[in-house]
Write a structure and sequence with these properties.
heterodimer, A: mainly alpha, B: mainly alpha, MetI-like fold
Chain lengths: ~270, ~325
Amino acid sequence: MSRALWLGGALSALVLVAAGLSFFWTPFDHSAMNIPDKLQTPGATHWFGTDHFGRDLFSMIMVGARTSIAVALVAVGIGIGLGVPLGLWAAARQGGWADEVIMRGNDLIFAFPSLVIAILITAIFGAGAVNAIIAIGIFNIPVFARVTRGGALPLWAREFILAARVSGKGAARISVEHILPNIANLLIVQATIQFSLGILAEAALSYVGLGAQPPTPSWGRMLADAQTLVSIAPHMALVPGVAIILTVLGLNLLGDGLRDALDPKLRVARA
Amino acid sequence: MLRYALKRLTSLLISLAIASLVIFAVIEVAPGDPASFMLGVNAQEDTLAALRAELGLDQSKVQRYLAWVSGMVQGDFGTSYQYRTPVSDMIAQRLWVSLPLALYALALSTLIAFPAGIYAASRRGKAGDVGVMGATQIGIAIPNFWFAMMLVLVFAINLRWFSAGGFAGWDKGVFAALKSLTLPAIALALPQAAILARVMRSSLLDIMGEDFMRTARAKGLTRAQALRRHGLRNALIPVLTILGLQFSFLLAGGIIIEQVFYLPGLGRLIFQSISARDLIVVESVTMLLVFAVIVVNFAVDLAYAAVDPRLRGRT
C-alpha cells in the first residue's frame, strides 16, 4: 500500500468518524451559546477554542463535517446516477446521434463557469443545502459521463464484449453486466476527486451565505463568521480552514493512491 | 484550417444561443416580481402596472428574450431596474477591476507554476520533485477565500504592508491600483498555480520519453539543456489548454475573492443585484461571464489547431 493511499485513507477515515460520532457525542452542544466563554483560544476545556457566541468550535467542526459530507456525497450521487448511464449510452451508440447529443451537451455544461452558475441557482431559488447540492451535482454529470464513455469505448472493441453480443445480449445488458464492472475503478477514483471538489464548492457557497442555513453548522459559514473577527480571534478562521484543507487533501491522496493501486499501468503516467 | 475554424465557430454560436436560453429561463422562473420589489408592499396596482410597462415586464417571454439578445449583440445590456442606468456602463466600470484581477492572477500563477513544474520534472523522483509535488497537493486543497483571509491577517493586519480590502481606483495611479489587487491576485493564483505546476510537470515527463529527446541527449546535451531547447516548446500544448480553462476559474473564483476584499468588481455587482432583485443586471453579467469563458476556450482551440495541424481533424 502506497504512502498516499495510507495517509489519504487515514485522513478521510478521520473526517468520516468525526462526522459519524457527532450524531451520538460531541464535547459540547454545538449550538449552545455561552457568552462568558466567548472567543477562547484552544485549550484544555475547549480543544479548538470558542467562537464569538462562546460555542465550542470542536463540536461545530464535528457537526459541520456532517454537512460537508452530506452535500458532497449527494452531489457525487447525482453525477454518478445521471452521468454514468449517459456515458454508457453514448459509448454503446458510438458516433450515433445519441453519442453526439450527449457529448455536445457535456461540452456545453463544461463551458459554464460552474461557481457562477451555482451562485445563480442558489441565489435565485433560495439559499440552502438542497439547492447547493443540486447546483454542485449538475456539474458532476458531464464529468462522470465523459469518464464513463472514455473508459467504455475501448472495451466495446474487445473480444469478451463481442462474445456477449454473439450470445444475444443487448447493448443495455452488456453495458450493465460487462462494461460497468470493468470501469468501476475509474469511477471510484473520479468519485473521490469529485467528492473533494464538492467539499470545496460547498464551503465556498456556505461562505457567501448560499449553502446550508443556520442553525445547521457548516465549515464555510464558520469561516464567514470568522472573517470580521480574524484580527482578534484568528483561531476561528484557522480551525475550519485546516479542517477543509485536511479533508480535501485526504480525499485527493486517497484518489491518487486508489488509482495507482487499482491500475498499475497508470503509475508512470500520473501527474 | 478555415474549414476547421468555421466548424468551431458554428458550435460556438450554438453554445452561446443555448447558454442565453438557459440563463433567461433561470431568471424567468425566479420568484419575486422586480416591480413590486422596487415599489414596496404598499404600492398601488396601477403604479405597479405602469412600472412593469416601463421595464418591459408586460411583454411576452419570447419578445423579452429576443429584445435582450438583440440588445446584447448591439452592446446594449438593458437598463438596471434599481439604478435606472445602462447595465453596460455598470459592467464597463466593474470590468476595470475584475479583468485586471483575473489577468494579474493568471500572470502570477504562470510565474509560480512554470519554474516549479520544470524544476520538479528535471528532478524526477528526487527530493526536490517530491517536495514540489507535496506542496501542490496542499495548494490544491486550500480554499482560495480562506487563503485570502490568511493573507489579510498576515500582510494587512499584522505587517500592514497592504490594506485589508477595497480598491484604490485607477485614477490613484497604476501602482496604487495594482497594490490593492495584489493580495486578491495571490489568493486566486496560488491554488491555480498548484494545478498548473502538476500539468507542466506531467507534460514534460511525457515529452522526456519521446525519441527526439533521447536523440537530443545522445548528441551530448544534458537533461536540462535538452529540456530547455526541445522539450519545453512541445510540452506547452497541454499547458495552454489548462491556462485557457484557468481563465474561467479565475473570473468565477474572482467572484468569491471580491467578497473577501470588498472589491467593486463583477462578482460584487452580481451579489448586490441578486439581493436587490435587479435581475436584468444578474442576467447580463452572467451571460457576459459565460461568453468570456466560451470565447476564450474557442480561441485556445484555434491557437491549438494553428500550432498543431493534426488537431484540425478532430472537433
